[in-house]
Known about the structure:
This protein is α+β, with helices and mostly antiparallel strands. The chain is built from 14 helices and 10 strands. The protein has helices at residues 2-23, 64-68, 71-79, 111-115, 124-143, 192-196, 204-219, 229-240, 245-252, 278-287, 298-302, 308-328, 330-356, 418-422, and strands at residues 26-34, 38-45, 51-57, 88-94, 99-105, 109-110, 146-147, 156-159, 162-165, 172-173. Strands 1-2-3-5-4 form a 5-stranded antiparallel sheet, with helices on both faces.
Amino acid sequence: MENYRKCCSSDMYGRRLNQILEQKEYKTIGKIGEGTFSDVLKVQSLNNGRCYACKQMKQHFESIDHVNNLREIQALRRLNPHPNILTLHEVIFDKKAGAVALICELMDMNIYELIKGRKKPLPEKKITNYMYQLCKSLDHIHRNGIFHRDVKPENILIKQDLLKLGDFGSCRSIHSKQPYTEYISTRWYRAPECLLTDGYYSYKMDIWSAGCVFYEIASFHPLFPGSNELDQISKIHDIIGTPPKKILHKFKQSRVMSFDFPIRKGKGISPFIPNLSNKSLTLMYAMIQYDPDERICAHEALQHPYFRELRLAEKQALTIHRKMRLVENPLERDSLGLRRVSKEDQRQNFFRQAQENPLGHHGLPNAVELPKLTVPAVTNLTSYPNPSFQSVFTLPASNRQVQILQPITYFGTHRKSEKQKEFKSPMKQYHLPALERRGGRF
């Protein structure tokens, strides 16, 4: 009886949501997928004719504040727009029914649907392209203070060659306080620190999950398909071996129960995917390092030699895009050209001056001859005697020696030294009388 009531309530909720979608001018086409906390529908906008993915939340919401506090909505608003993050177009909330729907970008399929039942392996270039975009999405969310906590093939969406990370319902802030929820990510993609600690893990768990996805895209099989937590740890040890005691001791410090594992060497990944290159294997091993402190981060993964060709192609595409922008915008092109010419002229002038003046003496740039001054006729001052000056030095023609002035040392004080006090200038001072101006003449 209770299950019957729940089904009736769910059907009424769904019908009410369909009515809301019709009011918002969306037509429901069909169901794409179903999860624990939401259903995903394919809807079409009656305004522009485009199709979208409608994520119908099963949770009941009391108010608009309750909706805005939803982690997935906060995360998508912070992370959008980004080419490798699912785009959120609209949030629909009906207060009467407490229903919420997220209108998102519609993709073709997820990674699980891509590889399910496939026998022929994907080309390594396609695998490299997908993993490069996945690492870019993780780098973007980690830089923005968010980690996903549920990276798996079902939550990685593709549309032709474009990959986008979706379903941020389990995401958490990197700066939030530990411990976190223990059983958060899907078991097969759960990192060792999530299995062996009481919720003490970090954003590095996303890298471990991405490494597991990497293997699954290449082999079409899960890397660590454990049936329970203990079996999950056992399968991890079968592949990469038992970690050193110092790493296990690090996990034991944040675990109430103690654990010990038999020592295993590990089979490695190579026997299961022999077609992959050595570069891909080194990146995969770096992503599934047992110790999260030794595990590669998303930014470092993007600089790995495995992605070298994609980085060069991306750089060339950016250069071409800039050139096209210059062609489309003549003002920007001309200003850039002027800046380049001016810098080149400055460089040439610097070398020219260095050759002409190697000692570094900087004189006037151009010698300019001053014009001769024409002195007008001025009345001689015959009524005033010309002052006579007595020279400090003797004439060279005389036999007397030239009097040499003694140097005066300055010690940084305003007081005069004894020699300054004794020194008296032989030069007499004369004061000319004031001139009277008469009718413009002297």
